[in-house]
Amino acid sequence: MRRSIATVSVSGTLAEKLDAIAAAGFDGVEIFENDLVSSPLSPEEVRDRAADLGLGIDLYQPFRDFEAVGPDALAAGLRRAEHKFAVMERLGARTLLVCSNVSRDAVDDDELAAAQLRLLAERAAAHGIRIAYEALAWGRHVDDYLHAWRIVRMADHPNLGTCLDSFHILSRGTDPGGIEAIPGEKIFFLQLADAPRLAMDVLQWSRHHRCFPGQGDFDVAGVVGHALRAGYRGPLSLEVFNDIVRQAAAARTAVDAMRSLIALEERATAPATAPTGFAFAELAVPAPERLGELLTALGFARTGGHATKPVELWEQGRARILLNATAREGTSLAAIGLETPDPGGAVRHAEHLLAPVLPRHRAPGEADLHAVAAPDGTELFFCRTDDPAWRADFSRPREAPGGEITCLDHVALAQPRHQFDEAALFYRSVLGLRPAARVEFADPYGLVRSRAMAGPGDAVRMVLNIASVGGGGAPWQHVALASTDIVATARRLRGLTLPIPANYHDDLEARFDLGPERHRLLRELGLLYDRDEHGEFLHLYTATYGRVFFEVVQRIGGYRGYGTAGSHVRLAAQHDGPYP
Ligand SMILES: O=C(O)c1ccc(O)c(O)c1
Ligand SMILES: [Mg+2]
């Protein structure tokens, strides 16, 4: 499929945009009028530059407020169009996008709109140009894609077709299934954008919050599927208006955009293979002693040391933590190991999605590890489930002790605000995780936005957090360990857990009637509690080491959440540190 993107979707001057778009591997661009008008390059220079970069100019846009108007406005519109056709000929662009009229002067008359669009198409045909009519979600009288299609059908001109835009369709909650009733050759263009579900004015929503497919809440792949089944064979073109993207580095945005298209095509065809579990979490530590004490208290044992690197392996059940004593600064979560039946295939898939593959510095005889870097710098290692070769790199490996901690439940990563959507798309596409709804909770110094994502069978769960407080905010990353008996774990951890205020337990007692005995135990051990329609959740947090802390969780029944109801209590207590 041809991959295109509108110039509005990346930052910079028109020349910078074209460079970044070409470098990311796109086939074509939609030239936004503002980008051309403000460019010192002539249309011929833009055409040549795009051609040199291997980019086609697939569309010119937008042409506004043309149809369903009185005679004077029509004459002015046709005059304006002739000027734009001349520019398009100089650019070598063959399709003009016409947005449905948003003016108060537009009249509610489909026959008039059709007759005038037909006239425009006749004029365009003389220049070899096609008109793609798009229903804006806030159009004065035409705000629905099927309405735009009815007008196009009524106008009945070979140079007039419709432009579908996933945002305008999905933001209005319209059923996209109707796309299949449009003959594929009458869909002249397909624009794709995702967005988070927000209850707000649709114009503001579109102009500021669109994002790349896979970053928001819309089923953009569904729209693509309908268009393909209708017989559409034109470009898949990204059109994103987004305040953060406007400020971001163009090259990085273009790669992110390309990743979203590749993943979208994949979703419309074969689903990605997801990891089957966590193999390990690797912490970079200045010195392993303090964390070693904590891990010992948690019931872990040091089961091996790396043959050639200052790395210790700590295990309990299938929970594995690597302490890598090469950190120059504080403790941080450096890498995540993911179990997968085919590590080589997983890395090739990640590479196909434009993930940077990490070079490995390995000694002869050591396992050839397959790893890629996530946008936040976290290294992701793919390991064989049945033959964890990386384990053989550790000298004197001992059996992992059994205990109530059985495996990693989830890993939570802090993301810079401007990379949150990029990270969500990355983890979603590269690891095949399904995102849950975004949630927000209060930090004493700001608001934290959070999005959880989980793979099939919840074998791998990740939580992405951004703190939108003064740039810095809560920087913590954490590893959540699944316990089959959190009361036992809590008893062993005494003094190493995050103190929870009595007010929390007073409130908990008001919200839930768990009986006096259970409430007393929760209070005594500093446990937090939550419940959903599937089951119960008990959890606690350890002290923080650099940027990292551990959470211990016990899921009872099929509880699906992450204890978010207690997050604001945790954040307040963490800011209160140091402790113990
Ligand atoms: O926000 C707008 O006006 C606008 C313009 C052109 C488009 O293709 C679109 O989807 C929105
Ligand atoms: Mg559009």
From TrEMBL:
InterPro entries in alphabetical order: DSD, Glyas_Bleomycin-R_OHBP_Dase, Glyas_Fos-R_dOase_dom, IolE/XylAMocC-like, VOC_core, Xyl_isomerase-like_sf, Xyl_isomerase-like_TIM-brl
Binding-site list for a divalent metal cation: 134, 165, 191, 239
E.C. number: 4.2.1.118
Enzyme category, top tier: lyase
Lyase listed as a keyword: yes
Reactions catalysed, as given in the entry: 3-dehydroshikimate = 3,4-dihydroxybenzoate + H2O
Listed GO MF terms: 3-dehydroshikimate dehydratase activity; dioxygenase activity; metal ion binding
Function: Catalyzes the conversion of 3-dehydroshikimate to protocatechuate (3,4-dihydroxybenzoate), a common intermediate of quinate and shikimate degradation pathways.
Protein name: 3-dehydroshikimate dehydratase
